[in-house]
Every structure is written in C-alpha cells, then in structure tokens.
Amino acid sequence: MNPIHFFTLGYYPEYLFIGVMFGIVIGAYAYFRVRYSLKDSEMSKNKKLAINIIIPVLAFLCSLNIWSNAAILTLYLFFSSLIADVIRLMWKYLLKARHLNFIPKYHKNGVLAFIIFLVIIIGSVYGMNHIELTQYNLTTDKIDNESYSLVWLSDIHYGTVQNPQLVKESISKINDLKPDIVVLGGDIVDERTSKEDMDEVFRQLGEINSTYGTYYIFGNHDTQPSSTDYENGNRTFSDDELKRAITGNGIRILNDEKAQINGDIVLVGRSDPKWEDAVDRIDLPDILNESDRSRYVVVLDHQPVEYEQNSRQGADLQISGHTHGGQMFPFAIMEKLMGHLIYGEYHFGNMEQIVSSGLTGWGWPMRNEAKCEYVLININ
C-alpha cells in the first residue's frame, strides 16, 4: 500500500469537522484506555506519561481525514476496544463465569481488543473480494409479448482496491446469463486507475455479449476529478482517451441521451450530477417525448438522485450505484440519517428505484456493509 494513500486517499476539507469530532472522541478514549492499561505497569513514570500522550495524539491525527486508511483502521481499533469493554463488563456483572477468568487480563493488556480488530479486518477484506449476483424480478403492463433481462454493473474502480481477476470472473459469469441489455453504471475507473488499467477494463467489458448491446453512463470518479490529491500531481488519462477506450470497444455512451430497445424499452442515460447540490444537466422531460412514456422508461443515473421527480415524469425504473451500500460501517448509518438512499429496492409512485452496492468499492480495500455485486433485473 502506498504510504501517501494510507494517510490521504483523497482529501475533502468539507469533511474536516467530522474528522475533528471523531478525533476528539477517539483521542479522549485512547487517553483513559492507555492510562488504565498502564496503571499497574512497572514502567517509569516518564515513560507512562510519554505513551499516554503520544497514543491519543496519534489517534486524533489519524482520524482527521475520514477517507483515509489510517482513519478507518483507527476507528475500528476504537470500536474493537469498546466491544472488549462491553465483554469485560458482561463478564464482571452478568456472567460471573469462573472458566472465563482470562478475560480481565486479556482485556487490560489489549489482546482481546486486538483479536476483535483482526476478526473485523479479515472479514472486511473477504467482503471486498467476494462478489455475488443480486437478482430483481419486475413486472409491467407496458410490454406485451416480451421479457427482458438487464445487467447493471457499476463502481468497479478498476485497478485500485480489488483483485482484477475477480472482474474477469464476473464478466464470464455475466456472459453465462446471456443478458439482453448491459449497463455500465459509472465509476468503472477512478482517479487512481492507470491508463493501462483503464484501457484493459474497457477491453474486457467490451467482450460481454448481449442481445441489444452495452451502454455506459459516467460516474463522479471516471473522469478523474482535478480536486483529488494525485500521487504525481497529474491525471493518468484524459477525457478523450477515456471516451475512445469506451466507444472503441463497442460500448455506447448515454450522456443525457436515450436509446430505444426493440420498441419496448427506452433507456435514458443521465450525465452525472457530481454532487447533489450542484446538479446542472438536461431535465428528463427535455429528453423524453410523449411517445416514449408509453414505453417502459428506464432512467440510468449513477447517483440515486431526482427519483421522486423522475417518478412523476413517467419513469418506470431508475437504476443507480455510487453509494457502495455504505461499504464500511458506520457510513451507511450516516447517509441514512441524511435521508439518502443507500442500497436495495425502493418504490416511488409507479416507479421502482434500485440502488446497487457495486462490484467493488472505493478507497479502502475492505467492505463490511452491503456486498460486492452485479445486478440482474428481469423485466416481465
């Protein structure tokens, strides 16, 4: 792992306040926890004092950039120690089991917390490297004699945090499904994908076979945003190189555009809004005409936004990614508290909204919320 990425992994100053709050809580806890652990130690008073200052300060500093690996590992050490505290209290006041007399010792010296931490990390690494098929079955009276299968594949972030071989295996499994339509839902690559990896992933994705073709919409990471702290200070590929790699492999880009599928389905690919408070793109009614609304309208939007408006404007299905299902605890809880859609199937009027957790994830090479997935939607 690059040591720069361990502490940075993209710096967004608008999240600094959250990092400071995390740092204060975790740093204060670390101070009292270390003090408790060293209470009966034979170390000199000066050594105890130094350790009791250094560890809380390090915990605070590592927590400041919440999108870094340093922050997530510090947070999980904190959670692991809290769980160990709960186990110690249960042993003392509830269980009172003599055969568990090792718990106080292992709790005090931190071994119990470290074991819990290892279990969480190993499970999270497994979660990032285990991909599943998720299937939805939808019905509509807008299609008379046909049924269609659509595969949604998003948030690959190729070449960054997941074994590339897993992408190849997933593409093989998608071909076995013999889908009618394939949609690449954005963030196929990101700011740390090399040009070689970018070319490679679209070559692989171009090998997916489908009846009516493969379509692509942009995510917020694909075009390598200039605000990111790139390791070498430069983007690894240009927008033009990205578009050539996509279209050169037989993949059609839909950027506030629509495509007709066999006279039954209208795919509307949206440009990415970047951030919810900076949406600047063509309105859905300006893309659709009246005859389109008599067909089954599928809105393809990387981020799950504008779903209520799309429902009122005649869309039947909206498919999104972007959220990664939270990816790492407790981010899903934070997003839900802000009223965001995170993962799964939602209903808005006559429209279905499906939010995928994506094939991979961003930043951290771990996942313990939702799952790595590709999505099969059967429209009957």
Structural class: alpha/beta
The secondary-structure element order is HHHHHHEEHEHEHEEEHEHEHEEE
User: Kindly, what is the distance between the CA atoms of the first and last residues, rounded to a whole number of angstroms?
Assistant: 46 Å
Poorly predicted spans:
none
Q: Quick one: overall form?
A: elongated
* Tally of strands: 12
Instruction: Name the average pLDDT.
Output: 88
Which percent range fits the helix content?
Answer: 25-40%
Computed over alpha carbons, the radius of gyration is: 24 Å
Q: So how many helices?
A: 12
> How does the major sheet shape up?
6 strands, mixed
How much of the sequence lies in strands comes to 15-25%
Using brief descriptors, characterize the structure shown.
six-stranded mixed β-sheet, 16% strand, 380 residues, alpha/beta
Characterization of the model:
By secondary structure, this protein is an alpha/beta fold. The chain has helices spanning 3-7, 16-37, 45-63, 69-95, 102-108, 111-128, 164-177, 195-205, 239-247, 284-287, 307-312, 331-337, and strands at 131-138, 148-153, 181-184, 214-216, 251-253, 257-261, 265-269, 296-300, 317-320, 344-348, 351-355, 372-379. Strands 1-12-2-3-4-5 form a 6-stranded mixed sheet. The chain has a 6-stranded mixed sheet with strand order 6-7-8-9-11-10. Helix 9 (239-247) links the parallel strand 4 and strand 5. The radius of gyration is 24 Å and the shape is elongated. The two termini are 46 Å apart.
